[in-house]
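Worked example 3 (structure in, sequence out).
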């Protein structure tokens, strides 16, 4: 533990020396979330992470999350150095939607507006007309519906299905999925609800439809956190990555939280959901990347300029 404290002290000192800020997602290790809070950085959902990076006057952003979050920070702040503890921290939605294949898919429907989830590469965003996150997807698709637009959606099929149900819009959908949320199981959730009949069910919309159907609240990580604080209920079953429990417990210390079961017995936290890519961020590689000022997120300038159009459209809409 003395060793851990030494690392934390070193990270704090390096952040200060480099005028750097930590931008962390709710799914990363508790110690990193705590460090971001203590040093004037942010712990947030993907939408707030993007906004924070763009508005910060830091010279350097250290993104503790997955690759698309680092890329988004760099696209919005090309003048800043953007570091990540491990550039291999990816996302199954990003991996499962290669830009060349997605471009061919879109080319089949030239009269459609292309809406992509933020969990995609810069190259995919460069093909898109709009970027959305789970925090604003419903509003943006409703807006496009009101304008009579026909829509191509990618890549998360469950989020796409939920948006279709909520808005009544039929979209041409790419069939990607999140390997973490896709593991939540209908029957296991039903059983847990029977054990805790007063618990309200909070679900991230990357989960399968038969899990989303059981939810009292569906939304982004930020929406789920707000629900726990604002609802009068005392018990909650939470279907999203267990990393969020750090913040949830902190914001609502008197509430009882249960992680929704995944049905798999092999995960590190005994059948609960945790993103293996988010877990690639740790104190050790965070300290190392600050010491070395590497690895840095770099994006081809032509791609960045194109992707910025769809990304900025989203941020302007959400303002
Ligand atoms: P949020 O935008 O809700 O933070 O989701 C990002 C993500 O990767 C969820 O798996
Ligand atoms: Fe991607 Fe799922 Fe991990 Fe989020 S939890 S980063 S959607 S793989």
């Amino acid at each position: 533990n003395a060793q851990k404290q030494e690392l934390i002290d070193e990270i704090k000192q390096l952040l200060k020396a480099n005028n750097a800020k930590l931008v962390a997602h709710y799914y990363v290790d508790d110690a990193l979330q705590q460090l971001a809070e203590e040093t004037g950085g942010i712990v947030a959902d993907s939408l707030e992470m993007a906004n924070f990076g763009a508005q910060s006057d830091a010279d350097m952003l250290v993104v503790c999350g997955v690759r698309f979050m680092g890329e988004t920070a760099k696209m919005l702040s090309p003048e800043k150095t953007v570091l990540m503890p491990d550039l291999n921290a990816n996302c199954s939605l990003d991996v499962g939607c290669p830009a060349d294949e997605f471009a061919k898919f879109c080319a089949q429907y030239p009269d459609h507006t292309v809406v992509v989830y933020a969990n995609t590469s810069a190259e995919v965003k460069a093909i898109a007309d709009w970027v959305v996150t789970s925090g604003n997807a419903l509003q943006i698709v409703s807006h496009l519906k009101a304008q009579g637009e026909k829509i191509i959606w990618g890549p998360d099929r469950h989020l796409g299905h939920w948006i279709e149900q909520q808005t009544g819009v039929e979209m041409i959908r790419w069939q990607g999925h999140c390997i973490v949320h896709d593991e939540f199981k209908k029957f296991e959730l039903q059983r847990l609800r029977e054990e805790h009949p007063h618990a309200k069910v909070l679900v991230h919309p990357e989960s399968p439809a038969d899990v989303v159907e059981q939810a009292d609240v569906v939304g982004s990580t930020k929406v789920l956190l707000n629900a726990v604080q604002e609802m009068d209920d005392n018990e909650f079953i939470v279907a999203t990555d267990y990393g969020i429990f750090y913040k949830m417990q902190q914001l609502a210390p008197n509430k009882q939280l249960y992680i929704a079961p995944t049905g798999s017995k092999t995960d590190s936290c005994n059948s609960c959901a945790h993103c293996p890519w988010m877990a690639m961020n740790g104190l050790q590689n965070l300290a190392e990347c600050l010491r070395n000022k590497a690895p840095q997120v770099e994006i081809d300038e032509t791609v960045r300029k194109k992707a910025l159009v769809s990304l900025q459209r989203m941020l302007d809409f959400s303002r």
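Notes: The pocket of iron/sulfur cluster (ligand 2) is lined by residues 66, 91-93, 119, 178-181, 206, 241, 275, 277-278 (CB under 6 Å). The longest strand covers residues 20-25.
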